[in-house]
């Protein structure tokens, strides 16, 4: 018994470049990052490598791009901040809060964003 090798592109849906860009923009307006948009499209069997532009490039052209790293770290900071407000005695959380805030500063500096 030999297995038939199939590539990922054989199973993917074929849509035009314009339809692909519209789908990316619709998903971006729901608040998803470029990483999550890619995952969502793959679940629908639409692979971004079949098209001319990257997802992040489409988002940058339409001024919808936000750094996924920054967004993830800011969410983490928000959770830590909420925890530290409830638990004032937790010293580890205070250290973690300063560490995560330093990460945010570094990412913003790297992306040349205002602090």
Structure explained in plain terms:
The protein is built from six helices and no strands. α5 (68-86) packs antiparallel against α6 (91-110). The mean pLDDT is 87. It is 63% helix and 0% strand. It has helices at 8-11, 17-29, 34-43, 55-61, 68-86, 91-110. It starts with 7 loop residues before the first helix and ends in a 5-residue tail after the last helix. The longest helix has 20 residues, at 91-110. With 115 residues, the protein is mainly alpha-helical. It folds into two domains: 8-61, no CATH class; 68-110.
Sum this structure up briefly:
The protein has 115 residues and is mainly α.
Element string (H = helix, E = strand): HHHHHH
Count of discrete alpha- or pi-helical segments spanning 4 or more residues = 6
Main sheet attributes: strand count, strand direction, barrel closure? none
Number of strands: 0
β content, as a range? under 5%
Helix content: 55-70%
Integer average pLDDT: 87
Class of secondary structure makeup = mainly alpha
Low-confidence stretches: none
Radius of gyration, whole Å: 20 Å
Q: Tell me the distance between the termini.
A: 61 Å
How many domains? The number is: 2
């Amino acid at each position: 018994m030999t297995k038939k090798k199939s590539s990922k592109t054989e199973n993917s849906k074929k849509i035009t470049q314009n339809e692909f860009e519209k789908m990316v923009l619709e998903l971006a307006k729901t608040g998803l990052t470029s990483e999550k948009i890619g995952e969502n499209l793959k679940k629908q069997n639409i692979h971004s490598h079949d098209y001319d532009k990257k997802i992040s490039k489409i988002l940058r052209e339409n001024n919808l791009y936000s750094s996924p790293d920054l967004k993830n770290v800011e969410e983490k900071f928000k959770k830590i901040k909420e925890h530290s407000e409830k638990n004032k005695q937790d010293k580890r959380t205070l250290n973690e809060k300063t560490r995560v805030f330093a990460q945010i500063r570094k990412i913003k500096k790297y992306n040349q964003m205002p602090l």
